[in-house]
Amino acid sequence: MFDLRWLRENPDAFDRGLARRGLPAASGQVLALDQEWRAAQTGAEQKRAQANSAAKEIGAIKAKGGDVSALLREGAEIKNTQGLFEERAAGLRGEIEALLAGFPNLPADDVPDGHDESENQIVRQVGTPPRFDFAPQDHVALGERLCQMDFARAGKLSGARFVVLFGGLARLERALGQFMLDLHTREFGYREVSPPLLVRDEAAFGTGQLPKFSEDLFRTTTGLWLIPTAEVALTNLVADEILDEAALPLRFTALTPCFRAEAGAAGKDTRGMIRQHQFSKVELVSIVHPDRSGEEHERLTQCAEEVLKRLGLAYRVMLLCAGDMGFAARKTYDLEVWLPGQNAYREISSCSDCGEFQARRMRARFRAKDGKSPRLVHTLNGSGLAVGRALIAVLENYQMPNGAIRVPEVLRSYLGGSEAIDADG
Length: 425
What we know:
By secondary structure, the protein is of the alpha+beta class. Helices cover 40% and strands 19% of the residues. The chain has two domains: 4-101, Helix Hairpins; 117-421, Bira Bifunctional Protein, Domain 2 (BirA Bifunctional Protein, domain 2), CATH 3.30.930.
């Protein structure tokens, strides 16, 4: 969401930002509507002033016992015209707001230009992919060999893009989520939250899922939306609030199921657990002072990275180009973990600085110590991590020749000391 006053003063900057996103210039369209809206507002104000003047004149003539019938007719006509101006202004304002709500956040200056993922930049690469003296299998083959990953039964229950996990793999998934939460709360200062999984339109709008991406969400018969990520619930905790500057930063984390229709991903990653309608994820959200969002972005990303480091997984950090960023982000780092079964790095976390974009939609502000007018906070979010993809990475990187899975050392205490998961479960 954008400040209309800023857009009036910086139309070229707005259009340049859209161009970097691969979108056509739009300031002219917005400002033309804005000009019409201001003209309607001016017309309404002028008619309101005329109506007030006429009312005073009518009162004065009445007090003297004079005839005011002609003035009453004239006053009624003024009021009618005023109403038409006000109706026109309200309609135009709604049209402007709907138009502005459809534009993505503008890229930060240090975001590289580019159209898609092929133009993203490697920031750093950490760890070395494992070498096997046997042909490594992907997570589907490994899970089915253990008889603990069942897509057929999930399909019978729910259709495509679902999975049922049993025994050791179900416990491993639970252990991963608990380990991530413990790390972020005990060492990195995030406050654990157990949020609702269903949210109103306003919450989904606040973080940028609505109105543009409604097809990617699941909606209930009561009109609520299943969260596609805990970011929606966690970020909206400060919606419509004015925080004290001393309370910043706020850092929240949650482990929740996430639900995505994946309408825009038809035919992508149809094998296995890479892209599902339901998955678990640990989310990190920060609400910060505007002067601190850049450093908080680096901090949040490093918190997510630490999960991969402690799991002993090779990964790389990618700076996304302008054309590959999410709708609400002004700068994003993707963490990509090495998957031997695909012989490739795959995304396991996106860490984004959204600046004031979401805060403006949510009306989330803070009052500075100097007592001046409230300012918008900045919001950030990241996966810390996607649990299902972390499970995939552990299976593929820790597989053994006999099909068993060695348990990373940091997870063993969550699994009763087990060092491996085998077919016995």
